[in-house]
TrEMBL record:
Keywords in alphabetical order: DNA-binding, Transcription, Transcription regulation
Compositional bias per record (Low complexity), positions renumbered to this chain: 237-250
Gene3D superfamilies for this protein: GntR ligand-binding domain-like (1.20.120.530), Winged helix-like DNA-binding domain superfamily/Winged helix DNA-binding domain (1.10.10.10)
PANTHER family documented for this protein: TRANSCRIPTIONAL REGULATOR, GNTR FAMILY (PTHR43537), UXU OPERON TRANSCRIPTIONAL REGULATOR (PTHR43537:SF5)
Coiled-coil ranges (or none): none
Taxonomic lineage of the native organism: Bacteria, Bacillati, Actinomycetota, Actinomycetes, Kitasatosporales
Region Disordered, residue ranges: 230-250
Organism: Streptomyces montanus
The keyword RNA-binding is assigned to this record: no
A GO term, aspect molecular function: DNA-binding transcription factor activity
InterPro entries per the UniProt record, alphabetical: GntR_C, TF_FadR/GntR_C, Tscrpt_reg_HTH_GntR, WH-like_DNA-bd_sf, WH_DNA-bd_sf
The keyword Transcription regulation is annotated on this UniProt entry: yes
Full protein name: FadR family transcriptional regulator
Every HTH gntR-type domain range: 16-84
Pfam families linked to this entry: FCD, GntR
Length: 250
């Protein structure tokens, strides 16, 4: 079985990375019960050989399985299945995705409004420089690092150190989530457009437009995350942790 080549699918074909293909294969095998809870997955060497992919690609897929809560990696022992899914609420670092998006909505949306009113020319220059670099960047790891810097810079522009401290606290989780969404959801170009809309609102000193732009950004983050962890056919009311259904955690 060769999963190393990109694939396409759906009415609007999107190139699927080798990592996505490996993740889909392993996730399906787990959710079909081919590996039961407590089972150990084949070794990395065995999986690389059978799937015909490189070790870095396989490790990215294994990390995604762990983020989804399907497996756990035990140093020196291997990767073990801890749930056969479907995934309900992935974890990014110390925080569940649902907790992360809830806090982000309560913090980053009003922060964008304050930033529109309080930003300095230096804040705008810094944000514009970050945007330009992000739009040119092709390396996912570098882009993710700048993504977290962007959200910190918006908090800094609000001129309240407490806001920045909150974003600093969840910075690692934001980076993990951003990497997850970019690897599996192809979010980078869309995120760049959403970030630019936020900065344009800050330039215009429009608190209304800034909060709307940040709200839209977080909506798209959550929508993409939901599509990854609860694809069509797996979504159901009992799998929803938020108080309301729909689009209401980079």
């Amino acid at each position: 079985m060769n999963l190393s080549d990109s694939q396409t699918g759906g009415s609007m074909p999107r190139r699927v990375s080798a990592m996505e293909a490996v993740l889909s294969h392993l996730r399906s095998a787990i959710e079909r019960g081919e590996y039961a809870v407590g089972d150990k997955l084949p070794s990395e060497a065995e999986l690389c050989r059978s799937l015909e992919v490189s070790r870095p690609v396989l490790r990215e897929a294994l990390r995604a399985l762990q983020t989804m809560g399907l497996t756990v990696s035990r140093t020196g022992k291997g990767t073990f299945v801890v749930s056969t899914g479907p995934v309900v609420d992935p974890t990014f670092g110390d925080y569940a995705a649902s907790d992360l998006i809830e806090v982000r909505r309560h913090v980053e949306i009003p922060v964008a409004g304050y930033a529109a009113v309080r930003r300095t020319p230096e804040d705008l220059d810094h944000l514009a420089h970050l945007l330009d670099r992000m739009e040119r960047e092709t390396d996912t790891t570098a882009w993710v690092a700048m993504d977290t810097l962007f959200h910190l810079a918006v908090a800094q522009a609000a001129q309240n150190p407490v806001f920045r401290r909150v974003i600093e606290e969840i910075r690692d989780a934001l980076a993990r989530q951003s990497a997850f969404l970019n690897e599996l959801g192809g979010r980078r170009e869309q995120s760049n457009r959403e970030h630019r809309a936020i900065v344009e609102a800050l330039i215009d000193r429009s608190a209304h437009d800034a909060t709307e732009a940040m709200s839209h950004h977080l909506d798209r983050v959550e929508t993409t995350l939901t599509a990854i962890v609860r694809p069509e056919g797996l979504d159901s009311p009992e799998n929803t942790n938020t108080p309301t259904e729909g689009e209401t955690p980079a």
